[in-house]
Batch of 2 targets.
Target 1
Amino acid sequence: MLIPIFLTVMAVFAQTLFVPLNLVLLALLYWIISLQERYWPVVAFGLGLLFDLLIVQPLGLSAIVFLFISFFCWLYSRKWRINHPIFLFIFLFVCDLLSRVIWGLELSVFQAGLVGLLAAIWGFRKQRSDEPVRVKLRT
Amino acid sequence: MRKSSTTEQFFLFGLLAFILLLIESLGFTRPLKSTMEIPIVSIKSQTFGLNTFLQYLAGWKIDKDEIIRLRAQVNRLSSTSAELISLSAENAALRQQLNVSLSFSSELIAASPIGFSGGQLTIDIGRHAGVSDGAAVILGRSLIGRVDRLSENQSVVLLPISEGEKISVAVRATPTGVKKASGLLIGQGDKMILDKVSPSEEISVGDLVMTVGEGFPRDLVVGTIGQIIPATGQLFKKAQVDQVVDFSNVERVFVVKF
């Protein structure tokens, strides 16, 4: 648990300091998927507050953005598989562009696509690892 | 005790965020933010230094050394050239003695960058140091940008290359300083475009692009004309403007205090 928390905080700092990629969205997605039904609102809220402090935004703005993103993910996960690479790509792509508009950062389709791609690769790997092991029986 | 459901948690934290935003708009969160920002600004400052170290380790710095040196040289030369333009015979000696001279008399506040991302530069001073919203940020005689948003201990500077940033500028001949044209400098994320230049006005590669005093102090260098964009059937002339300051490598900047 400590390692993911440390990596999340590092991702937030890295994004605000020198990495133009939306790492915080990837971190949020990790928490939503790994926490599933549990404490994602707390994580989204906390992450939002930290991000607001770092990028000098009104306190609570990113928290609202992250809460809505998480809520949509949660609703989606109740009906369909959230690990699906195509869903993750489109979702992260759209979320990246929307969040950049809200934060007043410059829009980059390439960076949004890259974030979507990273999420899709992760989703693909997770989907593969979650699949039940098939054993061939010799008759 | 009953455990709250996820939906309840969502609405509870959503409400909390809205209340925070409301309080923020009234300015009541400033003391809280100010306290919380102190360790954050300190960590950011340390981590930003680490970035330079990591770049050096990765070898990027070694490859870029020559480019950085040349850019610094261009910056110095542009600053010197701009200085010559505004020098008057009466106070030339005094200005030379001071090394850096400005065409306006305002107090300057020194600041260090602590973040550079997405066309924005974060500096380590805010309202506490006397920075105000919209203040110009300079380095020597070059324009770095303007303060876009700020808190008690840090400010975000919007650079001229930032997407959608517009600055009224004048184009001046490099050795003589004669004004050749007026135009509008538009940031496009990774480059700057000079637009709205009248077709009757002549501009050439290497000319200085300088502020005219609208929103910024006068005669600050923003860049040099890098390439004239051929205009076929267009009302105005356009040109690509090269920056004279490497924004990601500045170590100290100055905020102009109003």
Target 2
Amino acid sequence: MAIHITLNGKPHAVERRMDILSLLETLKVGPASVVVERNRNILHRDMFGSIVLKDGDELELIRFVGGG
Amino acid sequence: MKNLTATQKIRYSRNILVPEIGMTGQQKLLKGRVLVVGAGGLGSPALLYLVCAGVGTIGIVDGDRVELSNLQRQILHTSEDLDDLKTHSAQDKLHRLNPDVSIELYNKPFTAKNGRKLVSGYDFVIEATDNFKAKFLVNDICIQSKVPFCHAGILGMFGQVMTIVPGQGACYRCVFGNIPEPDQVSSTDQVGVLGVVAGTLGTIQAAEAVKFLIGRGKLLLGRLLTFDALNLIFREIELPSPCCEVCRAAKLIQ
């Protein structure tokens, strides 16, 4: 059954049960290139592989932007 | 507070007419002290607007010289300034724009050694640096010294900005943790940056400094504003409460 989350403010459906690391993989986003905020908590990078997405999760992938 | 001179009343008339500023707000701006770290893409528009607005004292920290590849976005500097110190080039333009403003130059990079001394004595800091090391350093020193500041970062056609009043919402480190590995993230040397992105974000930083000084409005606290110039979308990301070791060490976490 699909899991419905909000990804960067937009509805997003994933087709199967998956963790944050797998989601980033499907999105082709390097896990070290973003900060992941889930339901207003910043997730520790080491936990990406063990946190499984749930229906209704609000996820923000925050980019590192170093220019000035 | 000091009364405005007749010339100042004319120069700042369009500020004073704004109900949220008024004569009192203008007096606060004239008394205000803002430190701008970096006189490049973000620092240029921020400095120009702060000086126009009549912020009384402005410090500029930058140890670099003007390079040809800077001029596509760093609007404070011109072709005539090539190889000059950015601080001197900035002072020259800013003084001509508004001789009312006292400009303090620090012709050196912002470091762990000099940072504390640099931010002390200023009401607000604008973090307009161009690298992660400096961004984290400005954050940590402002948190430790309890000096409010506004962070911005730009890359390509994208930018982000957040204001930090120590203890009131997440700081830069609460969100970004640690300096990323260079091979994991892009830099402006690799993917460039559009001048108007620097202009937009640097201008927002100046607006935050002005709001802080006059004590009006809602600052960008606990919120990260992102700007996607390509699709013209501004988005706000709500951030967690202070949660990093620097906020904890500064006793900003209960």
